[in-house]
Amino acid sequence: MDNFEGLTAVVTGSASGIGRALAVKAASEGMNVCIADMNSSALEILADELKAKGVNVYAQKLDVSSSESVKSFAAECFSRFNTVELLFNNAGILSLGCAWEQSVEDWERLLSINVMGVVNGINAFLPAMVEAEKAAHIVNTGSVGSLVAAAGMAQYTASKMAVRGITECLSVELQLQQAPIGVSLLCPGPVATNIAEGVITRALGDDASAEMIAEAKAATVAGDPNFITPDVCAELVFSAIRDNKFWIFTHPFNRYYKGLTDAVLNGENPSYSDVEFD
Fold first, then answer.
1. Which sequence ranges form a coiled-coil region, renumbered to this chain (predicted)?
2. Annotated active-site positions, please?
3. Same domain for 109 and 209?
4. In which domain, by residue range, is 203 found?
């Protein structure tokens, strides 16, 4: 895909962070935009901003863990714009803590959003996209955690590794059917989003004020050259779609990942170290 003018993009988790940037980028390319998020107030603000620029927008509060709700959202998107050419299954949450500290309810909530949210998006939108026989593209938001593990992130890592598996299988299946639909896995490194804020909040403790959290987030982002903005991430995503790339990395970590895969092939026991981006 190269020219997006007049086509339709769907973005879940679009009220903030990467999802918001993807929606804004799609609008800047002349696309109709369908946006969805649980945060209805932030979603409404984004919708108003886009409409003020003359963008055709449909916004809906949405819990992606509900298959029926996602199906209803998809039906409305197709009703309004007839076809969907870009689908961004982006909604996700993060929970931190050692694997044995997480309750069953915590696991179920995170997996229902991070994994089943992607599944529900695929099931609700893809059949009609295939039937349309038009060039289209699906981007599922994974993470560096789709490829590497990290201490204190068992739930998140499990979910993002699952998203990787789903996305790879989907790509192969569409190729076998010779469907004109590309598939990408977005694997962001450090991006200045609400998820990054959640990590900082946990590090500061429950007594931290909003001001403390905001200051710590600003200091962390400013002090770490690896952090990029959501807008930069969105630019990388659209460039990858144009080039029909499966893997979308926002940060290089070739040396780190090669060391990890070499250890696997050599049968070495896992060991933990911070991911290095270079």
1. none
2. 156
3. no
4. 194-227
